[in-house]
Amino acid sequence: MPRKGAQKPMVTRLSITKVRVNFGAVVKRVHLNKEYIIIEKDGIPIAGLMDIDEFEDYLEQQDVAVRTTIEESDAEYRAGKSRPASELLSELAIEKPKKVQPKR
Protein backbone atom coordinates (compact mmCIF):
# COMPACT_ATOMS: atom_id res chain seq x y z
CA MET A 1 0.00 0.00 0.00
CA PRO A 2 1.54 3.29 -0.98
CA ARG A 3 2.21 5.86 1.67
CA LYS A 4 -0.08 8.86 1.92
CA GLY A 5 1.38 12.17 0.85
CA ALA A 6 4.61 12.85 -0.96
CA GLN A 7 6.85 12.67 2.09
CA LYS A 8 9.69 10.19 2.24
CA PRO A 9 9.26 7.61 4.98
CA MET A 10 11.08 8.44 8.17
CA VAL A 11 13.87 5.98 8.96
CA THR A 12 15.30 6.00 12.47
CA ARG A 13 18.23 4.00 13.77
CA LEU A 14 18.02 2.86 17.41
CA SER A 15 20.18 0.64 19.56
CA ILE A 16 18.69 -2.66 20.60
CA THR A 17 18.91 -1.56 24.24
CA LYS A 18 16.95 1.62 23.57
CA VAL A 19 14.30 -0.39 21.69
CA ARG A 20 14.05 -2.93 24.53
CA VAL A 21 13.64 -0.23 27.18
CA ASN A 22 11.08 1.75 25.12
CA PHE A 23 9.48 -1.08 23.17
CA GLY A 24 5.85 0.08 23.54
CA ALA A 25 6.66 3.64 22.47
CA VAL A 26 8.77 2.44 19.53
CA VAL A 27 5.99 0.18 18.26
CA LYS A 28 3.49 3.02 18.64
CA ARG A 29 5.73 5.30 16.52
CA VAL A 30 6.01 2.64 13.83
CA HIS A 31 2.25 2.08 13.75
CA LEU A 32 0.93 5.63 14.07
CA ASN A 33 3.65 7.57 12.20
CA LYS A 34 4.41 4.84 9.64
CA GLU A 35 8.10 5.11 10.58
CA TYR A 36 10.74 2.52 9.86
CA ILE A 37 13.07 1.61 12.70
CA ILE A 38 16.46 0.02 12.10
CA ILE A 39 17.61 -1.80 15.21
CA GLU A 40 21.35 -1.86 15.76
CA LYS A 41 23.60 -3.92 18.01
CA ASP A 42 27.05 -2.42 18.52
CA GLY A 43 26.31 -0.03 15.63
CA ILE A 44 25.53 -2.88 13.20
CA PRO A 45 21.99 -3.09 11.73
CA ILE A 46 20.43 -6.41 12.78
CA ALA A 47 16.68 -5.98 12.28
CA GLY A 48 13.99 -3.59 11.16
CA LEU A 49 10.47 -2.67 12.24
CA MET A 50 7.66 -1.60 9.92
CA ASP A 51 3.90 -1.24 10.20
CA ILE A 52 1.97 -4.50 9.79
CA ASP A 53 -0.02 -3.23 6.78
CA GLU A 54 3.17 -2.63 4.84
CA PHE A 55 4.63 -5.92 5.99
CA GLU A 56 1.56 -7.81 4.75
CA ASP A 57 1.82 -5.98 1.40
CA TYR A 58 5.48 -6.97 1.23
CA LEU A 59 4.63 -10.63 1.88
CA GLU A 60 1.88 -10.59 -0.76
CA GLN A 61 4.28 -9.26 -3.35
CA GLN A 62 6.63 -12.17 -2.70
CA ASP A 63 3.94 -14.43 -4.19
CA VAL A 64 4.64 -14.80 -7.94
CA ALA A 65 0.94 -15.06 -8.84
CA VAL A 66 0.10 -11.85 -6.96
CA ARG A 67 3.07 -10.02 -8.50
CA THR A 68 2.03 -11.18 -12.00
CA THR A 69 -1.55 -9.99 -11.46
CA ILE A 70 -0.31 -6.59 -10.28
CA GLU A 71 1.97 -6.25 -13.32
CA GLU A 72 -0.86 -7.22 -15.71
CA SER A 73 -3.26 -4.76 -14.08
CA ASP A 74 -0.67 -2.00 -14.23
CA ALA A 75 -0.06 -2.66 -17.94
CA GLU A 76 -3.82 -2.56 -18.66
CA TYR A 77 -4.18 0.70 -16.74
CA ARG A 78 -1.26 2.30 -18.61
CA ALA A 79 -2.79 1.13 -21.91
CA GLY A 80 -5.97 3.06 -21.06
CA LYS A 81 -8.10 0.02 -20.33
CA SER A 82 -9.60 1.53 -17.20
CA ARG A 83 -12.81 3.32 -16.37
CA PRO A 84 -14.06 5.57 -13.61
CA ALA A 85 -15.03 3.90 -10.36
CA SER A 86 -18.41 5.64 -10.45
CA GLU A 87 -19.22 3.78 -13.68
CA LEU A 88 -18.36 0.42 -12.13
CA LEU A 89 -20.30 1.19 -8.97
CA SER A 90 -23.40 2.12 -10.94
CA GLU A 91 -23.19 -1.23 -12.74
CA LEU A 92 -22.86 -3.05 -9.44
CA ALA A 93 -25.71 -1.19 -7.78
CA ILE A 94 -28.49 -3.61 -7.07
CA GLU A 95 -32.01 -2.56 -6.25
CA LYS A 96 -32.97 -3.52 -2.77
CA PRO A 97 -35.41 -6.40 -2.93
CA LYS A 98 -38.91 -5.49 -1.87
CA LYS A 99 -40.03 -7.04 1.35
CA VAL A 100 -42.56 -9.72 0.78
CA GLN A 101 -45.33 -10.11 3.32
CA PRO A 102 -45.51 -13.68 4.63
CA LYS A 103 -48.60 -15.61 3.55
CA ARG A 104 -51.12 -16.46 6.27
From TrEMBL:
It comes from the Bacteria. Pfam families: PhdYeFM_antitox. InterPro entries: Antitoxin_Phd/YefM, YefM-like_sf. Antitoxin component of a type II toxin-antitoxin (TA) system. Belongs to the phD/YefM antitoxin family. This is Antitoxin. It comes from Candidatus Entotheonella gemina.
